C-alpha cells in the first residue's frame, strides 16, 4: 500500500502545473508560458484587489501560483520587485512605461487584479474569485497574453483577503512624476525642519518650500496606514497662487492655530511615511481628498487615491519633491 500511495502522490504532484496534466488556473497560466520566446525570463508583480488597490495575502496566494506554474514549465522567474502601479496605467509615470518595465529586470512582466463575486441565490451565493492576469514584454510593451479566470474560493479566504500588505495606488502616488506633458515645470525645493527627519509622537513639524512666484502649491501626506491626505491647501488656507517663491507650512502667521503633527500607527512602533509637495503653474483639483483637521489618519483610500493618480497623470506643467520622514518613540 505504501508503494501504491507514493505512486499516486507522484501523479497528483504532476497535475499541479505539468503541461500534460494541467487544468483550470494552471492551464490558463500555461498559455502565457507558451507565448514566451525561448530563453525569456519573467517577473511576477503583485495581484491586487481591483477596486481598492490593496495588496493582500489572498492576492499573494495567486501570485505564488503564477510563479510556480511558470517555473514548473521551465520559465526562469526572477526575484519579486515592487513595481508600483505598473498593473494599472504605466503611462502615468513620467519616466515612461519602458523604464518601469525594465526595472523588473526581466524580459516579461506578469501582473494582475482580482475581485470577489457571488453566484446566484439558487446556487447558495457561493463566493468566487475573478482574476485578470496580463503579461507584457519589456522590449516593446506588447501584450504577451491576457488570462481571465474564475475559481471557487476556499474556506477561510476572508481572513487572507483582510490581511493587507500594501496598496498599489498609495505606492503610485509616491512614485508618479511629471510626464512629457509637463514641459514648463516650475522649479521646486523642499525640506523638513529636522535632520534626520525623525519626529517623536506629537512633535510639530515644519516644511520649507522654495518655488516660483505665482505657482500653485499642494502638500499631500502619504501615511503609513496606506491612506493619503491633503495638508495644503485647506479650509484656512485657500488654493491661491503663491505671492512669493518662499513658503513655510504651517505659516508663521498661523502658528498658534495650525500645526503639522505626526503620530505612529502604534504607540511603540517607528513608522516611515512621506510627504509629496507639488508645485503647478495651473490649479489642480484635490478637493476630494480629506484634510486631517483636529483628527489623526483621516486619509483617503481606494478610489480616491486612484483619482489622485489620474489627476496628476492628466495635469500639465507641474513638478514635485517627495520628503520621507520617520515618526515614533525611537526619534526621541
CATH fold descriptor of the largest domain: Rossmann fold
Q: Determine the mean pLDDT.
A: 85
Form type: globular
Could you give a short account of the major beta sheet?
A: 5 strands, mixed
- What's the order of the H and E elements? HHEEHEHEEEHEHEEEEEEEEEHE
Low-pLDDT windows of residues: 1-16, 18-22, 84-96
Strand order of the largest sheet: 3-1-4-5-6
What does the model show?
The chain has 332 residues and is of the alpha+beta class. It has two domains: 14-175, Rossmann fold (3-Layer(aba) Sandwich); 189-331, Immunoglobulin-like (Sandwich). Helix content is 22%, strand content 30%. It is built from seven helices and 17 strands. The protein has helices at residues 2-14, 24-35, 57-72, 97-102, 157-162, 168-175, 302-314, and strands at residues 41-49, 54-56, 76-77, 108-118, 127-137, 143-152, 164-167, 189-192, 198-199, 204-205, 207-210, 216-222, 228-232, 246-249, 260-261, 271-280, 318-327. The strands form five sheets. The chain has a five-stranded mixed β-sheet, covered by helices on one side. The longest helix is centred in the N-terminal third of the chain and has 16 residues, at 57-72. It is globular and about 70 Å long. Mean pLDDT is 85; it is low at 1-16, 18-22 and 84-96.
Keywords:
22% helix, 30% strand, alpha+beta, disordered N terminus, Immunoglobulin-like, Rossmann fold, 7 helices, globular, 2 domains, five-stranded mixed beta sheet, 332 residues
Summarize the structure.
The protein is an alpha+beta fold. 22% of the residues lie in helices and 30% in strands. It has helices at 2-14, 24-35, 57-72, 97-102, 157-162, 168-175, 302-314, and strands spanning 41-49, 54-56, 76-77, 108-118, 127-137, 143-152, 164-167, 189-192, 198-199, 204-205, 207-210, 216-222, 228-232, 246-249, 260-261, 271-280, 318-327.
Amino acid at each position: 500500500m505504501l508503494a501504491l500511495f507514493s505512486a499516486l502522490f507522484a501523479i497528483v504532484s504532476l497535475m499541479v502545473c505539468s503541461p500534460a496534466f494541467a487544468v483550470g488556473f494552471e492551464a490558463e497560466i500555461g498559455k502565457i508560458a507558451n507565448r514566451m520566446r525561448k530563453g525569456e525570463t519573467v517577473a511576477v508583480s503583485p495581484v491586487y484587489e481591483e477596486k481598492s488597490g490593496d495588496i493582500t495575502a489572498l492576492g499573494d496566494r495567486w501570485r505564488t501560483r503564477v510563479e510556480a506554474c511558470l517555473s514548473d514549465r521551465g520559465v526562469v522567474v526572477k526575484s519579486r520587485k515592487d513595481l508600483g502601479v505598473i498593473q494599472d496605467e504605466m503611462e502615468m509615470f513620467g519616466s515612461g512605461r519602458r523604464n518601469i518595465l525594465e526595472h523588473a529586470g526581466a524580459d516579461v512582466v506578469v501582473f494582475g487584479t482580482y475581485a470577489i463575486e457571488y453566484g446566484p441565490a439558487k446556487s447558495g451565493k457561493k463566493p468566487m474569485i475573478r482574476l485578470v492576469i496580463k503579461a507584457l514584454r519589456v522590449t516593446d510593451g506588447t501584450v504577451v497574453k491576457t488570462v481571465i479566470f474564475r475559481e471557487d474560493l476556499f474556506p477561510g479566504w476572508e481572513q487572507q483577503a483582510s490581511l493587507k500588505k500594501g496598496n498599489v495606488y498609495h505606492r503610485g502616488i509616491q512614485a508618479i512624476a511629471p510626464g512629457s506633458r509637463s514641459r514648463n515645470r516650475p522649479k521646486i525645493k523642499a525640506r523638513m525642519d529636522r535632520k534626520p527627519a525623525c519626529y517623536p509622537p506629537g512633535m510639530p513639524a515644519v516644511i520649507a518650500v522654495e518655488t516660483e512666484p505665482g505657482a500653485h502649491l499642494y502638500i499631500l501626506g502619504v501615511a503609513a496606514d496606506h491612506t493619503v491626505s491633503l495638508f495644503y491647501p485647506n479650509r484656512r488656507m485657500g488654493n491661491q497662487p503663491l505671492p512669493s517663491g518662499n513658503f513655510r507650512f504651517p505659516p508663521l502667521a498661523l502658528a498658534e492655530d495650525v500645526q503639522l503633527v505626526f503620530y505612529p500607527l502604534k504607540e511603540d512602533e517607528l513608522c516611515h511615511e512621506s510627504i509629496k509637495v507639488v508645485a503647478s503653474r495651473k490649479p489642480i483639483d484635490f478637493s476630494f481628498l480629506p484634510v486631517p483637521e483636529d483628527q489623526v489618519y483621516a486619509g483617503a483610500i481606494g478610489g480616491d487615491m486612484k483619482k489622485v493618480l489620474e489627476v496628476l497623470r492628466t495635469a500639465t506643467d507641474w513638478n514635485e519633491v517627495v520628503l520621507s520622514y520617520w515618526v515614533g518613540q525611537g526619534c526621541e
